[in-house]
Fold Aspartokinase.
Amino acid sequence: MARIVVKFGGTSVANVERIRNAARHIKREVDAGHEVAVVVSAMSGKTNELVGWVNEASKFHDAREYDAVVASGEQVTAGLMAIVLSEMGIQARSFAGWQVPINTDDAHGAARITGIDPTELDKRMKDGWVPVITGFQGISPHGRITTLGRGGSDTSAVAVAAAVGADRCDIYTDVDGVYTTDPRIVAKAQRLTKISFEEMLEMASLGAKVLMIRSVEKAMAHKVRLLVRASFDDPDAPQIAPDGTPGVPGTLVCDEAEIVEKQIVSGVTLAKAEAKITLRDVKDNPGVAAAIFGTLADKGIIVDMIVQNIADDGATTDITFTVPDSEYDKAVKALEDNGGRFEYARLSGSKGGAKVSVVGVGMRSHAGVASSMFKALADKGINIQLITTSEIKTSVLIDEEYAELAVRALHTYYGLDRQDA
């Protein structure tokens, strides 16, 4: 018997029929003797509708009342799921975030979980009940409903799993696992049986959309094993692992120690619409980098890749970095109107770049991964504009027109096309 927290996203509970299908997945786990808690999102599109109503009521609304309205979407889903489970003969009860309670700070609209009291959930699960908990929300120190921002339901599920000591947290979504790259780009992309927290965190930050970064960070911090699996699979079908053997479907996101055989490269990611900005002959005084990137941070502009080249005389430096295409014009204006915080000779830049990255914990123990990546791209005639590296990833900026060619080339080069990858 295991203790499992299962989470269903908006598309998985988009209507009552899909809620029934999700409930059948829950019933399968209950019938197998497991203790189960459920975390649900609002029905697909419902949160956007609620946000629209708030904005229609007032453009300058109270953030606390915004949260009160927007949090209602998950409450509807939780109630419906509990009703459907009860109809199936399973003891179930809905819990709003404040009833658990899921405690948060008071940053309304983007709150962070500060703690969860598992007493009531633990008792219910031990007694054979299935608690159905609203994701995406909690309660502030002042007793007000809060919402957690984008990806909040995944974060809620991981936090609940950590609080109740779950053996794993199953994230049901509209894909059947984590792939070596986007299957829409590479038809031979393979579903991974296991991937480490660190690799998943890098892939999520580099463009993979399967899991939100905050939920992976929390899972890694609390050592909560995540299982990414498809909600639209037949709940009554035989449970088959990615390698074709009987077992749990989907991709397990776990500690690196659980992965016996580590691939040099586990995945290739792509992020399009990257703009490049270069400041030429910046006077290299102490604090100049802080002034440049502080100017951008003040405008809420997120900077990604950064490369600095210092002149031979040490008096000036060139600084190149990337921002989203959508932030390019705002970034250029902020740099030009910097109020004398730093000096430079000229500014140049362009939109339409793409960041291609290779990720793998095996890179730690294998030399030459970066150089082999550069060779693979050179063989296809693809020019590299920027390079950044970390212990388990290498990223390059290239022209967007070569982005998919680069992904396909690297996927094949590192042997990820193979069925046993």
The first strand starts at residue 3 and ends at 8. Residues 194 and 260 are 10 Å apart (CA to CA). The mean pLDDT is 92.
